[in-house]
Amino acid sequence: MRIIYNKFYPFKPFLAQNFLGIIFCRGKKGSLKPHDINHEYIHTLQQKELLYIGFPIIYYLEWLLNFLKCHNIMQAYYDISLEKEAYDNERDLNYQQHRKHFQWTKYLKEGSLPKEIVDFANEIRLFIKEDFSLCKYLYILLLITLIIIGQVEFNIYDILIKPSYENHTSMLRISMVYAFAYYLTMIPTVLMSHEGKRLRQWQVWVFPLLLVTIDGSGQGFSEYVDWCQSLTNIPIEQEYLQLVSSYLFRSVGILTLLILFRGFTSGEFGLYGVNRSTKYLRIYGIIFLLLLPIFIVVSFTPQFMEFYPRMTINQVSGSFGLSDALLILPFETCYANDFLAVESMFRGAMVIGLSRWLGARAILPMIITYMCVHLGKPDLELCSSVFGGYILGILAYRTHHLWGGIIIHLGIALLFEALGLLHYFL
Q1: What is the pLDDT of residue 423?
Q2: In this model, does residue 267 exceed pLDDT 60?
Q3: 3-class DSSP state for residue 17?
Q4: Edge-to-edge strand list for the sheet holding 16-19
Q5: Is the pLDDT of residue 41 over 80?
Q6: Which end of the chain is more exposed for a tag (fewer CB within 10 A), N or C?
Q7: Using CA atoms in the order 144, 358, 190, 205, what is the torsion angle rounded to 10 degrees?
Q8: What's the pLDDT tens digit per position in 310-332?
Q9: d(Cα 351, Cα 339) in Å, to the nearest integer?
Q10: Are 164 and 174 in contact (CB under 8 A)?
Q11: pLDDT tens column, 106-124
């Protein structure tokens, strides 16, 4: 471990500071005593565990939160968990030999935001450790790559799904696509996990088929078009009713069928994770805020502005003699409700519900099926559905609630709509 002695840094009252494993000492050579060097070496171990970049994030976030509580700069410094571990063990010169990984987390205060962040990351780490298999994940990567290439290069949505709306086979066609994606993922990944005995349960064959049929039928239901046309002869009003109905009938239909389906999969976690748990809600909010700048940048891309807002205002403006604002509100309400149905289906029924028979193996089939739902949407949204579906699936499985997915998914959806409307009106 390299030590750089100088006259100025770090500033008083501190004697030494560790930066990426290099110690800067304000003083002459030999100013650091063995326990001081050991203190800084403990920080080096902490930095390696946090891949260096995570160390300052945890360090200064803790300091800020501590300072807001005690209003004392030095006390806030001493209360940082990373410093507590270093100070408590600096005089044990053999500490590195028996130290456990992430030992600093033992010094985090229960209920604190840093403690919640660490537990949140640990949930994901433990799942990956339990579920990871190189062969299995390479297979999933292959499926994801083929879907992305198929959509980006060949537009498989226009080939497989879009024409089915014209010949009224969309409910069947979409259900078949989802079922194919689900079982193409579920069967090999269960076998690669050496858990073939799970496939002997009739539930892993029947229940997923029922679920993808419910969702596919909801996505493909188009009978509302004729109903809307029968209610008015004015084209713009027909267009508006069809837009609202497309999300209203789909979301209500899926949620209703899920409630009926619950009779087969009822368990201790309520309606597929709709319960009073508040675990990690603060973290979900932080994740959304961190992603906010990215979403704003993406909103200026041509593909985004072509796709959002979902209601083409200039095509329905003036419907029923209402202002644009009064037309937007009912549509956005139905649009938001659709995302509740999506979370209840994919993170709720397909993960929490089916985990009774598939355990952790319920997540990867859900991801590929969920990706297929995003066919025809902007390419970035299609790709991000993989990462988002994976993380939200893990957390639904580990926490047994859906609120994280609802907060992030619904938040992103409404933000995209808001940004699309902003671009339109400006």
Answers
A1: 83
A2: no
A3: strand
A4: 3-6, 22-26, 16-19
A5: yes
A6: C
A7: -90
A8: 888 888 888 998 898 899 999 99
A9: 16
A10: yes
A11: 888 877 778 888 888 888 8
String of b and e for 247-282 (b: at least 16 CB within 10 Å)? Answer: bbbbbebbbebbeebbeebeeebbbbbbbebebbee
Q: What is the mean pLDDT of residues 359-384?
A: 92
Structure tokens at 66: 């501590």
pLDDT surpassing 50 at residue 62? yes
pLDDT above 90 covers a percentage of the chain that reads: 39
pLDDT at 269: 44
Give residue-wise pLDDT tens across range 132-176: 999 999 999 999 999 999 999 999 999 999 999 888 899 999 999
The phi, psi pair for 18, rounded to 5°, reads: -100, 125
420: how many CB neighbours lie within 10 A of its CB?
20
Long-range contacts at 419-424 (CB < 8 A, ≥ 24 apart): 419/295, 419/296, 419/299, 419/304, 419/308, 420/299, 420/304, 420/305, 420/307, 420/308, 420/309, 420/310, 421/309, 421/313, 421/328, 423/299, 423/300, 423/305, 423/308, 424/309, 424/313
Per-residue model confidence (pLDDT) at position 2: 85
Residue identified by tokens 């969920």 is: 370
Give the relative orientation of helices 324-343 and 235-265 as an angle to the nearest 10 degrees: 20
Q: Which of 206, 220, 222 is nearest to 264 (CA)?
A: 206
The reported pLDDT for the residue numbered 201 is: 93
Q: Which of 373, 386, 384 is nearest to 338 (CA)?
A: 373
- Helix residue ranges per DSSP H, 72-223: 73-78, 81-89, 95-98, 113-131, 134-154, 156, 162-166, 170-192, 203-220
CA distance 417 to 414: 5
DSSP state of 377: S
Write out pLDDT tens, residues 203-221.
999 999 999 999 999 989 8
Nearest to 348 by CA among 253, 251, 272: 272
3-state secondary structure 196-255: HHHHHCCHHHHHHHHHHHHHHHHHHCCCHHHHHHHHCCCHHHHHHHHHHHHHHHHHHHHH
Backbone angles phi, psi at 15, to 5 degrees: -95, -35
Are 313 and 245 a contacting pair, CB within 8 Å?
no
Is 332 in contact with 308 (CB distance < 8 Å)?
no
Phi, psi of 277 (to 5 degrees): -65, 140
